[in-house]
Amino acid sequence: MSSKLRVLVPVKRVVDHAIRPRVNKQLTNVETKNLKFSINPFDDIAVEESVKLRESHPDLVESIHAVSVGPVKAQDVLRTALAKGCDSSTLVEHESTELEPLVISKVLKKLVQEKSVNLVVLGKQAIDDDSNNTGQMLAGLLNWPQATNACKVELLDGGASVRVTKEVDGGEEIIVAKLPMIITTDLRLNTPRYATLPNLMKAKKKPLEKLKLKKDFEGISLDPQLKLLKVEEPPVKSAGIKVSSVDELVSKLKEAKLV
Amino acid sequence: MLRSAARRFSAFGGRGLTQASTLAFVETSKEGVIAPASLNVLYAAGKLGNQIDAVLLGSKAQEAAASLQKLDVGSLNKILVVSEQSLDDLLPEHITPVVYDLLQKGDYSHFVVPASSVGKGFLPRVGALLDLQPICDVTQILDPNTFVRPMYAGNILATVESQQSQKLISVRSSAFPAVGAGSNSAAIETVAASTSVNGAEIPPVQWEGANLVKSERPELGSAARIVSGGRGLKNKETFEALVTPLADTLGAAIGATRAAVDAGFCDNSLQIGQTGKIVAPELYIALGVSGAIQHLAGIKDANTVVAINKDPEAPIFQVADYGLVGDLNELVPELTEKLKQ
């Protein structure tokens, strides 16, 4: 195996981050009909980082392959990823309900092996289920090193190893790992570029392979391990009051014994 | 009934689960100090109603175990100590074989970790190896199989049920009280560190260093009072000149919005929100914070929110108990002065 990087970037189609989701009348799930969907913001950062790695190390990155598991419409986010600089893509089609990270990580494991990928860059969490699982699970299944919440990525030794600065609770932590490895992206890693119109046109000509989850990934159980019993919106806080001066604020806080 | 239970559990790879029991991961610093969030985890573990074993990792785990004995955890049965220097850095690649080893024997029906960087780092990794989907960032334990967890930046609360043979749970520490000082009679037991999972050795990874923010202030996650600043503070100088004195006066922790962090007003470990810290203080004072949903996700459980902002239309006022509209540069020093009196 050559030491060149063959990067896999999983991307998820999620309800746009600016939209406040609502629950359905039966309180069984989130109402997602007619909402705007976009690429998960952290995945957008993962695409950007992969493309940037190639721009700064043109000789070291052999390929960047984007993958999404989801409905047919998820090809939109793959086209976006292609327009931003990914070379090729795979859509693993599956309608019906949301899939758990455990399922996704098994699908990704198979793709990693089939495409002899040696670096997977993915978002630290999807903004819909907020699990923050898939990258770590994939790293576990493959027994690869993982660098989660990356805010800086540096290639060392001609790409054989990678130094990652990670965001942790009290600040930052730096680790060095040998390829193959998994990186999950945090917000501050980079600012994703916009897909320009000419690049969006070109992206239509880039490869988009379509697989079916049930047919092409036999043996992976799709049954959810966690049963969603109910969804609800958190209790709405009663409206507060506006005070007109600092004095009034201080007296209110003192009344409430907060200061 | 016993027989049916045995049959049920034999379906899970013959793990001999005899009775419900919880393993709690107690996070410690390199110096062997128990992380504050672990006190909330121990409380949450108690809510499951089982007896608890705690596991501590690192070369100072023995010392940490001694301080664990001085906590009020009535249901604590055993303290498992894995005194291995390679675990000091708490790298998920090193923790995973140890935890996998403890769990795959099947003695534990529940495994509880804090939803901290460390907990979030290794729990899914262990989950994948045990073929279990973890239940992440749990804010309520309804019964030993049913949990509430937030989704969509806290805009949705999901009640999920797990019939998995073992439940892997990360708990949001701000959603549970901390166990207090006291004592328990748990015995300390030394456990050897496993370094492989099904024959697979630890993959090549090295801890190189850390830039941790030193602070005398209360920790954000458990602070009773927080003063936070947003983009409205304009620059680092104003942030420091306005936020710091007010926080000092109140003995409060300092927080920030993503915008403030991105603009370099303060360190990113202070970020509060969906992708930063989730806090639940008694008093939260937001200065120049507009109130984007991602930020509000982090302060949903704050008891009293005070907002000072010059824009009367800022969304933060919709969640603020007390709002004050005006210029921060005048109002905040005045507030600081008057609180000192």
UniProtKB/TrEMBL annotation, chain A:
Start and end residues of each Electron transfer flavoprotein alpha/beta-subunit N-terminal domain: 27-220
CDD domains: ETF_beta
Cofactor(s) it depends on: FAD; AMP
Entries under Pfam families matching the protein: ETF
Cofactor binding summary note: Binds 1 FAD per dimer. Binds 1 AMP per subunit.
Entry's Gene Ontology BP terms: amino acid catabolic process; fatty acid beta-oxidation using acyl-CoA dehydrogenase
Subcellular location: Mitochondrion matrix
Function per UniProt: The electron transfer flavoprotein serves as a specific electron acceptor for several dehydrogenases, including five acyl-CoA dehydrogenases, glutaryl-CoA and sarcosine dehydrogenase. It transfers the electrons to the main mitochondrial respiratory chain via ETF-ubiquinone oxidoreductase (ETF dehydrogenase).
Subunit structure: Heterodimer of an alpha and a beta subunit.
Family: Belongs to the ETF beta-subunit/FixA family.
Stated name of the protein: Probable electron transfer flavoprotein subunit beta
TrEMBL record, chain B:
Alphabetical list of CDD domains matching this protein: ETF_alpha (cd01715)
Pfam families, sorted: ETF (PF01012), ETF_alpha (PF00766)
A GO MF label: electron transfer activity
Superkingdom of this protein's organism: Eukaryota
Alphabetical keyword list: Electron transport, FAD, Flavoprotein, Mitochondrion, Transport
GO terms, biological process: fatty acid beta-oxidation using acyl-CoA dehydrogenase
Binding site residues for FAD: 231, 257-258, 271-275, 288-295, 309
Cofactor(s) required for function per UniProt: FAD
SMART domains in alphabetical order: ETF
GO CC term (a single one): mitochondrial matrix
Protein location: Mitochondrion matrix
Annotated cofactor note: Binds 1 FAD per dimer.
The keyword Repressor is assigned to this record: no
Keyword Electron transport attributed: yes
PROSITE patterns in the cross-refs: ETF_ALPHA
Domain Electron transfer flavoprotein alpha/beta-subunit N-terminal: start-end pairs: 22-206
Record PANTHER family: ELECTRON TRANSFER FLAVOPROTEIN ALPHA, ELECTRON TRANSFER FLAVOPROTEIN SUBUNIT ALPHA, MITOCHONDRIAL
Record function comment: The electron transfer flavoprotein serves as a specific electron acceptor for several dehydrogenases, including five acyl-CoA dehydrogenases, glutaryl-CoA and sarcosine dehydrogenase. It transfers the electrons to the main mitochondrial respiratory chain via ETF-ubiquinone oxidoreductase (ETF dehydrogenase).
Family: Belongs to the ETF alpha-subunit/FixB family.
Name recorded for this polypeptide: Probable electron transfer flavoprotein subunit alpha
Source species: Kluyveromyces dobzhanskii CBS 2104
